Amino acid sequence: MDVPHVPSSISRRVLDLADTRVVVLDPTLQSIRDAARLCRIEAVNGSAARPIVIVNRAGETGRRSIKADDIAGALQQRVRSVVPYQPTLFADAAAQGGVAAAKRGRFADAIAALATEISGQAPPQRSRWSLFR
């Protein structure tokens, strides 16, 4: 569920019931502040499972963009996936009627890492020999 940056009673209840929380933010100070607020909310049942933190649109603001390490420090937890800002990839996919994650690259790798993280599966181990394929 997409919750507002200031949770209401309904969104608070959904956060309490969720098995997995994923906090998606862009690399701006406002988003970091909102994400910190959401990360501090503990479930009613006492489980202190930390949410999965995803940085979306990384690199959109160029040099002024806040780095994932700085975001992790501000939130005091690890950033699990960084989704790069690639507007031409989306424009091309939309023009061709395709899916942006179908093309190999940084975006597809970030989405695959996110899917692996949310599913709870171990990341696939790459063989050293795969470098020569």
| Average pLDDT figure | 83
Major sheet summary line: 3 strands, parallel
- Strand order, largest beta sheet: 1-2-3
Helix content: 25-40%
Oligomer: single chain
Query: What sort of overall outline do the alpha carbons produce when their principal axes are compared?
Result: globular
Query: Helix/strand-derived class?
Result: alpha/beta
Order of helices and strands: HEHEHEHH
Primary descriptors:
133 residues, alpha/beta, 3-stranded parallel beta sheet, 5 helices, globular
Structure description:
The structure is a single chain. The chain has 133 residues and is α/β, with parallel strands linked by helices. It has a domain at 9-85. Helix content is 40%, strand content 13%. The chain is built from 5 helices and 3 strands; from the N terminus they run αβαβαβαα. It has helices spanning 9-17, 29-40, 68-75, 87-96, 106-119; strands at residues 22-25, 52-58, 79-84. A 3-stranded parallel sheet has the order 1-2-3. Helix 2 (29-40) links the parallel strand 1 and strand 2. The longest helix is centred in the C-terminal third of the chain and has 14 residues, at 106-119. The radius of gyration is 17 Å and the shape is globular. The protein starts with 8 loop residues before the first helix and ends in a 14-residue tail after the last helix. The mean pLDDT is 83.
